[in-house]
Amino acid sequence: LGFWSGPNSDNVFISIEGKPTENLWLQLYSQQTRRGEVNDSTVEKQYTGEHIDFLYRTYPGDPECKTILGLMGELRISTFAKVDFDLFYLDWNQKKDPDNNDRHHFKKWDMIIKVSVGF
User: How many CB atoms lie within 10 A of CB 26?
Assistant: First the structure.
């Protein structure tokens, strides 16, 4: 098993969380990841123990950088129902397009909502 960013990367995750009420849990979080190129060669070197320079890349410009800022929470509606949510902003510089291998700057707001009901 491995982490998505590979061996020539760094990742910082910071959060603060709490329960403002008995039925509500909130977490404010931030994650920043920088990584070098991930391709067949770097993956093979990772598993054969060969050295890969930190943030190694063959493409021009800055290393890939992904920043996420978010608010996550859980609201208990009753003993058998809850709503989980995650609202976040993603800013990804040098993101690789899987269709044509071009790199671009990608930004978006997104939200995930999950409703759970038990019987």
Answer: 16
β-pair type (103-117, 81-96): antiparallel
- Specify the pTM: 0.83
The C-alpha atoms of residue 42 and residue 96 are separated, in whole angstroms, by 16
Of 112, 77, 107, the residue nearest 90 (C-alpha): 107
**Rounded distance between C-alpha atoms, residue 112 and residue 47, angstroms:** 35
Asked if 14 and 30 count as a contact pair (C-beta separation under 8 A), the reply is yes
Per-residue pLDDT at 1 exceeds 70: no
Contact 84, 73 (CB under 8 A): yes
